């Protein structure tokens, strides 16, 4: 099966600019996650979708970050305006499980490495 | 709320030697436990998981982990490492009650296998 696809792989922008990341999950996976991985740290959940609805966005900095998952398939994560501390790898993951399925494994994409200068 | 502590940020080890990566967690509820591996410039790949049953869990690539509820630990081991095991390893927990398998990750342990 094809894995989770993310683009672009790398992005360099200046602070205060905007940027968008795209994710295409594994076909049929109901749940989609965006994680932020700052250098030297473990991934931190930003937002979780179930189909096209938001399940948890409690750790998403909503003043600058936004995400959507139209039609319950692809997702985009946007940062506007970017800050220096947003430099990180943004990982998209998907899982087959639904909200009542607690142990479906997450499948991760290769991530987008963002550098804000 | 849960937290995960990986006690070693880096572990150098010689090829064919054993390795143990330590993971402790804190949670007020029962959890599922996971180990993921991240090779350079790649996403995370599931190594193994503990959901219930036997406390010794075997995963891919010869790795195994043991769940110790009294010590709230889930240490990862491999009896003989290869150069290809050079990677970063993440321990993660998922809350029984959390919808949709949200993972809380530790800070990671970087394993460097030397020839």
Quantity of strands of chain A, as a count:
11
Overall SS class of chain B = mainly beta
Kindly estimate the percentage of residues of chain B that lie in beta strands according to DSSP.
Answer: over 45%
Report helical residue fraction of chain A.
Answer: under 10%
CA distance, first residue to last residue of chain A: 37 Å
Distance between the termini of chain B: 41 Å
Largest sheet of chain A, if any?
A: 7 strands, mixed
Structure notes:
The complex is a heterodimer of chains A (117) and B (115). Chain A is mainly beta. Helix content of chain A is 0%, strand content 47%. Chain A is built from no helices and 11 strands. Chain A has strands spanning 5-7, 10-13, 19-24, 31-37, 44-50, 53-56, 65-68, 75-79, 88-95, 107-108, 112-116. In chain A, the strands form 2 sheets. In chain A, strands 2, 4, 5, 6, 9, 10 and 11 form a 7-stranded mixed β-sheet that branches. A 4-stranded antiparallel β-sheet of chain A has the order 1-3-8-7, with no helix packed on it. In chain A, a hairpin with a 6-residue loop joins strand 4 (31-37) and strand 5. In chain B, strands 2, 5, 6, 10, 11 and 12 form a 6-stranded mixed β-sheet that branches. In chain B, 37% of the residues are buried. The mean pLDDT of chain B is 91. In chain B, strand 7 (56-58) and strand 8 form a beta hairpin. With 115 residues, chain B is mainly β. Chain B has strands spanning 3-6, 10-14, 19-21, 23-26, 31-38, 44-50, 56-58, 64-68, 73-78, 87-95, 103-105, 109-114. The interface between A and B is medium-sized, with 30 and 28 residues.
């Amino acid at each position: 099966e094809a894995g989770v696809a993310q683009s672009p792989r790398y992005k360099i922008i200046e602070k205060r600019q905007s940027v968008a990341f795209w994710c295409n999950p594994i076909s049929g996976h109901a749940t989609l996650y965006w994680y932020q991985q700052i250098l030297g740290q473990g991934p931190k959940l930003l937002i979780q979708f179930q189909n096209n609805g938001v399940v948890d966005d409690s750790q998403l900095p909503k003043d600058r970050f936004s995400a959507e998952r139209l039609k319950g398939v692809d997702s985009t994560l946007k940062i506007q305006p970017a800050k220096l501390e947003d430099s990180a790898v943004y990982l998209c993951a998907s899982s087959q499980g639904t909200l009542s399925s607690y142990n479906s494994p997450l499948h991760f994409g290769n991530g987008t490495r963002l550098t804000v200068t | 709320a849960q937290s995960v502590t990986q006690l070693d940020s880096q572990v150098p080890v010689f090829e064919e030697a054993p390795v143990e990566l330590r993971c402790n967690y804190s949670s007020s509820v029962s959890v599922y436990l996971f180990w993921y591996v991240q090779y350079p410039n790649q996403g995370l790949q599931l190594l193994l998981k503990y959901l219930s049953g036997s406390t010794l869990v075997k995963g891919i690539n010869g790795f195994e982990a043991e769940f110790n509820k009294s010590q709230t630990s889930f240490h990862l081991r491999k009896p003989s490492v290869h150069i290809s095991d050079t990677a970063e390893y993440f321990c993660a927990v998922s809350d029984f009650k959390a919808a949709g398998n949200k993972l809380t990750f530790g800070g990671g342990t970087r394993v460097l296998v030397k020839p």
